[in-house]
Amino acid sequence: MPQPVPVTVSATLAADEALARRRSAGEAVVPLASGEIGLPVLPELRERLAGAAGLNAYGPVAGSPELRAAAAGYWRRRGLDADPDLVVSGPGSKPLLFALMLAVGGDVVIPVPSWVSYAAQAALAGGRAIPVATRPGEGGVPDPEALRAAVRSARARGRDPRSVVVTLPDNPTGTVASPGTVRELARAARELDLVVISDEIYCDLVFDPADRAVSPAVHAPERTVVTTGLTKNLGVGGWRTGVARLPDGPLGRDLHQRLVGVASQVWSSTAAPVQAAAAYAFAEPPEVLAHVAASRRLHATTTRAVAALFAATGAELTPVRATCYLYPDFEPLRARLADTHGVRDGAGIAALLAERHGVVLLPGSAFGEPDTSLRVRAATSRLYGEGDAERAAALTAPDPLRLPWIRDSLDRVKAALTDLVADRPPTRGELS
Amino acid sequence: MPQPVPVTVSATLAADEALARRRSAGEAVVPLASGEIGLPVLPELRERLAGAAGLNAYGPVAGSPELRAAAAGYWRRRGLDADPDLVVSGPGSKPLLFALMLAVGGDVVIPVPSWVSYAAQAALAGGRAIPVATRPGEGGVPDPEALRAAVRSARARGRDPRSVVVTLPDNPTGTVASPGTVRELARAARELDLVVISDEIYCDLVFDPADRAVSPAVHAPERTVVTTGLTKNLGVGGWRTGVARLPDGPLGRDLHQRLVGVASQVWSSTAAPVQAAAAYAFAEPPEVLAHVAASRRLHATTTRAVAALFAATGAELTPVRATCYLYPDFEPLRARLADTHGVRDGAGIAALLAERHGVVLLPGSAFGEPDTSLRVRAATSRLYGEGDAERAAALTAPDPLRLPWIRDSLDRVKAALTDLVADRPPTRGELS
């Protein structure tokens, strides 16, 4: 039987499951692969879901009026005008991004590096991903000049790019593109007649409150779709809930109709009890804001501590300003890694750290980098403990780095990195 | 900007939303369009969801081990061998069907008439639907002889059919294909090397327990994927939960891997609290079985009563054996409908009944019939009352047809049909 588009399991989800298997086999692991947020559900949010368990109707495809109004308010408080009639709910921002690619059609420009699923989704939606490099230290936004060249070249070759994805703040780099770069990107998208799909799922996880990411929706409001969800700020990825804000105007209204059409044929609606809880969360009562702020502080402290360990090895690392990710580049240590360990790529680094130290992270190749790249992505959001008690303690600790389980993970990362960049292989005695 | 594949909103979901608008405008309506089950959630099931509200991790893409084991047990109790490792959970059986079409690729044979979303999903998945008529009175399964001819002809024209969808029991007709037809279909699929996608979401809603639908998985176990969910038997469509059972053997294992790949890139996982509740439901403790049995009795009683009203008009109607649907054909009354009302198609019947009587149903054209067809589909699952109290009363009533709100709906349907098939237009006095 002929085979359709190849599909591989999402690298982060696959790493997650591999980790769970290692753990259940009794191995000690430091889980730095998946960005799943290992924190308990805010009790008030949990109660909203429980209280809505009797809701069994589909409701509107685009989401309940309460959820859409709350999401619109959420965006308005962040400086983006939003019309509840142009908000669409989905079972996660991931399916919304996929449905947008289906609704827009054509090929999709994506930044390099970028989240593991954009390119796979573009292929599943029948298009192709057109990778465009980001500017140094400004992950998530394709370099606007390179975007122009790539789109013109693609069109000259008969390809049909119709959208560009940006990630603000960025996964995998933990950086935030500058306001100037975002403005230039928006201008380029308008010149090239591209829809901008702005994945802002990390927008509440910018460490310094004075340091907000600017949405391209500010500069190209007529063509920018913004997506977000509760997976990162409130750690309820397993609930599967996201929202998209469609642009106002003819392009946006047409796209809204197409997106709702796709949603109606692919998923019908988002789980009704989850929608009820999400409506509460997007309204941002004080306890929700406090919980998000506490998680943000915890991510900032832990991510910066892990980043310092990587930076101390001599790897290149742009300071992390948001999310729970860091994206070091071991290029300055290429010769030493090859000499000492025979390691010549990110996959080699990841394999060495996992097999020898149980430190599990992802190679840059999972994010669209060349296989030869020595970049890796480390996510710190699974270091907060096992079980809700440890995790709740991490969330409220004045200095979470002193909690023994976090301290232990950091020590294990430090030891693993010391071994990785040693200028000779460790002796048997040093390893044990 | 060039346009991608056209997408229209699912006809049933669109009708549902139109109905909600009419209702909120204070109009009296008899909702026969959508097959959403208007019954309350079983209290024990609701409690399971509420109790699982703290589950916020993604868990495995294919679903929790508990859910997969429970679903496998569910199928084994229905005579189908099932391996939990070949079960895949999704946020509804709808997204599973779509993901299967993506995972299999190519064009998709669908029965005519059939559920509104198969053809739309095939197009979104990059293929085309190849419609094949069903045998009279045996909806849901393409006539095996016609299937052979259609697939051979499609291949001769360079098209690439790789799968055939069947619906057992059938929506929209409420019929169940005979065991002989299912066996022939399975044989034809093997000859033609087609994957069989067997949508068995109504399998618990066969009215007579002696009258079970036979799955093609019995006859073509190596190539049949079975999907189901809790939307119809337990009325929790708004929770969005479904499961797929992949075939054992090389084809099935390859398809399983591809399906999990698609799932990981499109939706990640099913809402974790919903999975916990679904694991409980698929294990079928006595209270679940009793609730399903009560709903089945209610559907049977109500659907047969509505069917009798349609049959009394002279419309052709195969006896309904399952689901909550009936699918009358007004062809014998074509001349009268044209003379009296100027009605020449199913859409005309639906418009007349809706506008003049508030009786909302769907024309056969929504299910792939020619526009000129005088078939319509009526769903009775929304007649059980407004709010949980009326609906719970309907579920336990010894004779639900005597409940005033159901009685009233039936009377309104009867009056509407009397008007429809009258041999002269009603006078003003008769209408008021």
UniProtKB/TrEMBL annotation, chains A, B:
Aminotransferase class I/classII large domain residues are 29-379
Cofactor(s) it depends on: pyridoxal 5'-phosphate
What Gene3D superfamilies does the annotation carry? Aspartate Aminotransferase, domain 1, Type I PLP-dependent aspartate aminotransferase-like (Major domain)
| Keyword terms of this UniProt record | Aminotransferase, Pyridoxal phosphate, Transferase
User: Could you state a single Gene Ontology molecular function term?
Assistant: transaminase activity
Q: What's this protein's family per the entry? A: Belongs to the class-I pyridoxal-phosphate-dependent aminotransferase family.
Specify the protein name.
Aminotransferase class I/II-fold pyridoxal phosphate-dependent enzyme
